[in-house]
Amino acid sequence: MFVLAKPEEYGKLASLACGLWHDAYDELFGSEQVEYMTSTMQSAEAIAKQTEGGYLYFFIVEGGQTIGYCGIRPEGTKMFLSKLYLCAEQRGKGLGRRALAEVAEQARRRGLSSVYLTVNKGNERAIRAYERFGFVRADSTVTDIGGGFAMDDYIYEFKL
User: Fold this and answer.
1) Which domains does the chain have, with CATH numbers?
2) pTM score, two decimals?
């Protein structure tokens, strides 16, 4: 299900991210903020820089078709689940649950104690999915992301 993205595929990954983020967030944030976020955080260059800092990016592949992507980074005793996006037509099929299970397995293989993530407080669909999987709300945070934008997020954690 997870296929590690190679440096020469970061452009393809950035293009996929742009479409998935606009689909997921235009109604929540507005297209101007989504465009800012994808151009600064999910461009091929930004992805390359993040991987230099320990991030791992994966294409999510099902039946030979790329249906989403995931970004994770080990941090001390925890795994940070930075990104997990599926194409809209693939949601509701249990694939998100399988992807979360794969993230947990990636953390277990590294001997880590938990997986944590941030999710926008208004992203009710994602919050429901994380809670159904077993993530528990641990905290909240507001982060200035530049460009006059901020993220108002919950922090969720899944103990392994």
Assistant:
1) 2-159 (3.40.630.30)
2) 0.95
